[in-house]
Amino acid sequence: MASPGSGFWSFGSEDGSGDPENPGTARAWCQVAQKFTGGIGNKLCALLYGDAEKPAESGGSEPPRATSRKAACACNQKPCSCPKADINYAFLHATDLLPACDGERPTLAFLQDVMDILLQYVVKSFDRSTKVIDFHYPNELLQEYNWELADQPQNLEEILMHCQTTLKYAIKTGHPRYFNQLSTGLDMVGLAADWLTSTANTNMFTYEIAPVFVLLEYVTLKKMREIIGWPGGSGDGIFSPGGAISNMYAMLIARFKMFPEVKEKGMAAVPRLIAFTSEHSHFSLKKGAAALGIGTDSVILIKCDERGKMIPSDLERRILEAKQKGFVPFLVSATAGTTVYGAFDPLLAVADICKKYKIWMHVDAAWGGGLLMSRKHKWKLSGVERANSVTWNPHKMMGVPLQCSALLVREEGLMQSCNQMHASYLFQQDKHYDLSYDTGDKALQCGRHVDVFKLWLMWRAKGTTGFEAHIDKCLELAEYLYNTIKNREGYEMVFDGKPQHTNVCFWYVPPSLRVLEDNEERMSRLSKVAPVIKARMMEYGTTMVSYQPLGDKVNFFRMVISNPAATHQDIDFLIEEIERLGQDL
């Protein structure tokens, strides 16, 4: 159960307290929960009451697990045909579920019990008294369970147990004290949308098989382009499997724009192409260059200032160097929200240089794009409207469930020309509807997952103002962390000044190192501190935060906040936990 004061179970109770420990409040919750079918209500009540008082409706004891239901008859037929018999999963297999004849009843029971498992996990994800992770080493998990695939099917009782086991060892990425990645949190509307998407189980390549989803992608991408600042939301775009692929799309389209013949004739038909990005940019730029045959040596890393921002003068210098060697600069990728420092490159200055030398300007705003939703913080992306393409990952700062990444392109039709292959078995030209809604031919993929519905439904539920409040809160929490530790004994900031994003980078210096001079020995010992504290965090399961070295800087903590469930108390807990786990180092 959520800790007192966390607000998770808060609502208007009879005494106005909203206290989850108040019997009247808990009973009211249980009355609501009893409307769920398949035993879900009883188990939610058990979670509310724990081992203390339970409502009369629950019978005063925890109901039997879904996987241990016993048959009410003794016929042992498979499946049992007795109308009053309960479901016995030990006698059932996947072949007894729909589309099997008479499969409706076991299917409903099975899915309700799966839902029971999922809902309990969801509730526990927000409970601060539960572990963020139940960590086991790989060899321990491999030895403890048989994960191998077999020729013969297992029964549904075992299948449900696998669901429970998998979630038992899963990382609770929605936990208020999980800060390890850029993508954190668990949005309830987004989760519901993901369940619906999986239920629909369709592909995004044509309107005829995904009519609503295709229209929602059109509407949502247009809105995102409007927010970027392109007139009337004009342009093009697509949802892709993550920011790395979105960045590769940008590189692919930029190359085609400059040398369209490369589509048929390949790299042998074009001169040596050069891309430019900052030394703090995401590794996906080099991966994309490798995949497209451009080569990692053709990606030039531009120097950054002490805050991690690209230095425009160095960019122009390196462009001129490349041109003098006879190479062709074709793309500059600026970053809006770098992975480690959370830095925003000076987009206006970069845009001026790209215009001067006629180079495609891409903005990797996978991490920072969400700030465009905030009137308070969108200035950090000033100049993004001058980009030719933008990567924006709503599954990061906006809290949309993974995965949800968009590549937005300013020039309409260019993506289609670049990737189109005219597969006549999918994209027939004599269909009876507007063929512009058959979007699959502009994608690299044929099979494409429906990623837009999560974002669209959350947007409808929250509104732009809801996303704005979410983002403003996370940035305020980052500033609170920075202000708390910047002058606190035992902490050293990696760079000076308030962070621009939610990235807060710092060293924790144990008491034994505070008296040492700033020399090589101290740096060597300091480099081992963050990995040990992180390992202890995971073994205790209390919290998770990332660390890494960067350039000449030894391992430091990189705190990021994108989970709206986090509070000032969770930030305080993190600080105290780092100190508790690192005092003896």
From TrEMBL:
InterPro entries: PyrdxlP-dep_de-COase, PyrdxlP-dep_Trfase, PyrdxlP-dep_Trfase_major, Pyridoxal-P_BS. Keywords: Cell membrane, Cell projection, Cytoplasm, Cytoplasmic vesicle, Decarboxylase, Golgi apparatus, Lipoprotein, Lyase, Membrane, Neurotransmitter biosynthesis, Palmitate, Phosphoprotein, Pyridoxal phosphate, Synapse. Its cofactor is pyridoxal 5'-phosphate. CDD domains: DOPA_deC_like. The keyword Phosphoprotein applies. Gene3D superfamilies: 3.90.1150.170, Type I PLP-dependent aspartate aminotransferase-like (Major domain). GO terms for cellular component: cytoplasmic vesicle; cytosol; Golgi membrane; presynaptic membrane. It is found in: Cytoplasm, Cytosol; Cytoplasmic vesicle; Golgi apparatus membrane; Presynaptic cell membrane. Its main location: cytoplasm. Belongs to the group II decarboxylase family. PANTHER family: GLUTAMATE DECARBOXYLASE 2, GLUTAMATE DECARBOXYLASE-RELATED. Catalyzes the production of GABA. Homodimer. This is Glutamate decarboxylase 2. It comes from Callorhinus ursinus. The gene is LOC112839062.
